[in-house]
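Q: What changes when inosinic acid is included in the input?
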Amino acid sequence: MSVIQILDKKFEPYISYNEIELAIDKMAKKINDELKDDLPVFLMILNGSFMFGADLMKRIDFPCEVSFVKVASYAGTKSTEEVKELIGLNEDLKGRNVVIVEDIIDSGLTIDGILKDLKNKGVKSVKISTLLLKPKAFKGSYDIDYVGMEIPNDFIVGYGLDYNQLGRNLKDIYKIVE
Ligand code: IMP
Ligand code: MG
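A: The predicted holo structure follows.
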């Protein structure tokens, strides 16, 4: 692995696919222990979580459903409010146990919006899994159940994460060179 260029920015190797896999192994073990009797729906938040979601699901050893959604943002009724809504959902989540699968939680606003939407849909329970968390940026008032790795507030790409839609295909994770 060496320094790469994406558009105007340089990125250096940061987290290898090997380390990513070890983190996912641990998360999957915990999820397999805790949710095996829940018949959950794993809700992959696209686009970012497509690689993580695939690697996580290969390690889940109990009956479950998998669904793929995107998050749409639009201005709410109050001027400062930004409403987030799940789009592309095919199944009725009423009364279901849902596990959100996210690539990275930064400020936490995206998941906050998803939680509100899921509550409106009448889900039974929600668990949150994220490969990466930036604890210093996180402003949410909810618990995150499964975290692969905590990282500083650096901008990263690879393994599903993008810079202006580029870099999602990289197998490893790279960090911006300031
Ligand atoms: P939040 O709403 O601030 O928690 O932001 C979450 C979303 O921002 C993630 O789902 C990513 O799409 C994006 N994001 C946050 N940090 C990064 C990063 O370092 N690289 C690429 N995308 C990021
Ligand atoms: Mg994302």
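Observations recorded in class: Residues 52 and 134 are 17 Å apart (CA to CA).
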